[in-house]
């Protein structure tokens, strides 16, 4: 099925892709707030660990194969393979999570975060929340991410928050070492469940190698990915893959919730709260980045580009429904997520579902403006809401 992103220009796609990566990071800004309210901080931390550990190895491998930098032998990737994966991961959106990389040799490297947007969001909440994110969550999830490249890779801190002194920079620093003597990192049980999903196994159109621009990421690791250097075909594939990353993360979120929720009603409520918050804030950023008009035509365009309804090859044929993905949360009685998207343009806009099918949503204009949905307000606290990307040079990183 043709991608919804195919009609965008190469220039617009280069703007959109980092926005999608940042939106993926915002999923937890929305979802974890409601997990704290329902289960408390300690259970929220465990949900976050299970969520990322059951999703990131899958989508990391998908991106490796899409852009041609998968290791020749599965599980035998090097430090560069790991770092390239981080640059295309919703867990590490460019600049917002400002990774700076050093490669010593194929088995040894380091990275530091000159800016960590996640830390900026959590630091005002106190040191317990900082430790929860930077220690309790990061330790197992960094190793889980390494499974996709080399299960004998270990990511270990040089220093990390809570920051001492309070303005310490870089925010954190880590070593990455691959050693055959290290025990192999093991996936959690939910990873195997997620690997059987439609999102994990979906075939997307291959990148056209004859298209103008880079068709892969087989060259050297660069300091900052220049998305404008990729071809139109490559950017379409990357955008679709990033949307799949979000769906895989949400599916892992659901798997973690299912073992904790006392009822289907509780599970549905939390999932809808998560979706509404990230849908609204993501729509704000996409609309602003692409200059989408604040009228009914703009609303229809924004809906067509939103990850809730993408990739088309996942949502259109019904694969997303088989997975119980975001689209299954929307029905004629509950359209808050769709409303949050169009109201990012104009609070007078709204969405109605025709024939009970979310794929036949109709944009309407109300006489009175709608108040901001509380789920969107909760997610807007993140510094990611107003974060601004800057133009940077893309320089090759060579071993030192």
Q: Give helix % range.
A: 40-55%
How many structural domains? 2
Low-confidence stretches: none
Number of helices: 15
Q: How are strands sequenced across the largest beta sheet?
A: 1-2-4-3
N/C terminus separation: 45 Å
How large is the share of residues in beta strands? 5-15%
* Overall strand count: 6
Q: How does the overall form come out from the CA principal axes?
A: globular
Please identify the structural class as seen in this structure: alpha+beta
Q: How confident is the prediction overall: mean pLDDT?
A: 96
Radius of gyration: 20 Å
Elements, N to C (H/E): HHHHEEHHEEHHHHHHHHEEH
Q: Could you describe the largest sheet, including whether it forms a barrel?
A: 4 strands, antiparallel
Question: What can you see in these coordinates?
Answer:
By secondary structure, this protein is α+β, with helices and mostly antiparallel strands. The chain has two domains: 10-184 and 196-233, no CATH class; 256-384, no CATH class. 46% of the residues lie in helices and 10% in strands. It has helices at residues 10-39, 41-53, 56-66, 79-87, 117-122, 127-146, 189-195, 198-201, 232-258, 264-290, 296-305, 312-315, 319-322, 336-342, 374-379, and strands spanning 97-105, 108-116, 153-159, 172-178, 349-353, 361-365. The strands form two sheets. The protein has a four-stranded antiparallel β-sheet. Strands 5-6 form a two-stranded antiparallel ribbon. Helix 1 (10-39) packs antiparallel against helix 10 (264-290), helix 2 (41-53) runs parallel beside helix 6 (127-146) and helix 3 (56-66) runs antiparallel to helix 9 (232-258). It is globular, with a radius of gyration of 20 Å. The N and C termini lie far apart (45 Å).
């Amino acid at each position: 099925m043709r991608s919804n992103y195919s009609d965008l220009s190469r220039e617009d796609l280069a703007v959109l892709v980092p926005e999608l990566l940042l939106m993926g990071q915002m999923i937890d800004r929305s979802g974890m707030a409601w997990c704290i309210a329902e289960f408390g901080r300690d259970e929220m931390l465990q949900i976050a660990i299970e969520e990322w550990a059951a999703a990131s190895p899958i989508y990391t491998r998908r991106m490796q194969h899409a852009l041609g930098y998968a290791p020749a032998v599965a599980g035998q990737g090097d430090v560069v393979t790991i770092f390239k994966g981080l640059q295309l991961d919703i867990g590490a959106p460019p600049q917002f999570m400002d990774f700076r990389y050093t490669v010593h040799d194929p088995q040894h490297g380091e990275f530091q975060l000159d800016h960590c947007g996640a830390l900026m969001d959590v630091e005002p909440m106190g040191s317990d929340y900082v430790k929860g994110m930077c220690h309790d969550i990061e330790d197992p999830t960094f190793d889980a991410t390494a499974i996709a490249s080399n299960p004998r890779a270990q990511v270990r801190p040089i220093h990390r928050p809570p920051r001492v002194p309070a303005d310490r920079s870089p925010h954190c620093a880590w070593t990455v070492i691959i050693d055959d003597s290290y025990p192999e990192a093991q996936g959690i049980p939910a990873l195997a469940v997620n690997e059987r999903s439609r999102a994990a196994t979906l075939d997307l159109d291959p990148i056209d190698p004859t298209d103008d621009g880079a068709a892969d990421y087989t060259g050297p690791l660069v300091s900052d990915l220049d998305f404008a250097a990729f071809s139109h075909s490559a950017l379409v594939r990357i955008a679709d893959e990033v949307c799949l990353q979000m769906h895989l993360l949400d599916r892992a979120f659901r798997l973690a919730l299912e073992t904790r929720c006392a009822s289907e009603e509780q599970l549905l409520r939390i999932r809808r709260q998560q979706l509404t918050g990230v849908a609204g804030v993501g729509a704000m950023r996409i609309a602003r980045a692409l200059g989408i008009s604040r009228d009914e035509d703009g609303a229809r365009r924004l809906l067509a580009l939103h990850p809730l309804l993408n990739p088309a090859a996942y949502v259109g044929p019904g694969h997303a429904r088989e997975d119980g993905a975001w689209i299954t949360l929307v029905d004629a009685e509950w359209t808050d997520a769709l409303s949050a998207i169009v109201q990012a343009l104009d609070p007078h806009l709204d969405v109605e579902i025709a024939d009970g099918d979310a794929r036949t949503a109709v944009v309407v204009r109300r006489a009175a403006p709608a108040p901001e949905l509380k789920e969107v307000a909760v997610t807007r606290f993140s510094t990611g809401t107003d974060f601004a990307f800057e133009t940077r040079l893309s320089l090759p990183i060579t071993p030192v």
